[in-house]
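U., I forgot to send this yesterday:
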Amino acid sequence: MGKTGISGYQYLKKNNQISLYDDNKNIFIEKNFKKSLLDRNKIQRSKFDFILISPGININKCNLKNYLKKNQKKIITDLDIFYSHHSKNRIITITGTNGKSTTAKLLDLILKDHKKDSRLCGNIGNPILSQKKISKKTLFVVEASSYQIAYSKLFKTNYAVILNISPDHLERHGSIENYVSAKFKLITNQSKKDYAYVNSEDKYLKKKVKKSKIFSKIIKVNP
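Result:
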């Protein structure tokens, strides 16, 4: 269980009954999570309100694939949990095949330089659920992977940035179309008051913009 899983457990454990599963049982023993550990058989006999899954897990190729596919509607991400508690905060989410970490870091530095309470988090190594002392003025700069976005159910962002698309992670998504759709969920989940910034020269994004029902304001940027 990595940083995302640990942050999710720490965030939820105070007010919820949490069960944990990982193929590597030693992880829980080392981190004193043994009391919450369930084995695969017990997990498959259990019922849960929600299943918080690590983005790195491919539900089609894991030990719990049958159980997870059967309960796919219950699968959520740390982004969903965060949004359900902090939907009033301003959120800027950056994704793309290349350059998202650099862009997110740069934007965070610019916001901090303008005296904003900016938090750099997400797939960049700082789990979004690990953020502390959040106020109404706190801004979140989120780096999001296609895996996180694909699994998310509730997450919405005020500002969506899709830098570029090139064939990647196709062994996971199955096709370039599925990969593009996963990224593009950031935009299709937005409302009229939101903004989406897309690379005007990216052939996959241009095609997706034309075919999709979009409510937010699209701003095309030529990098």
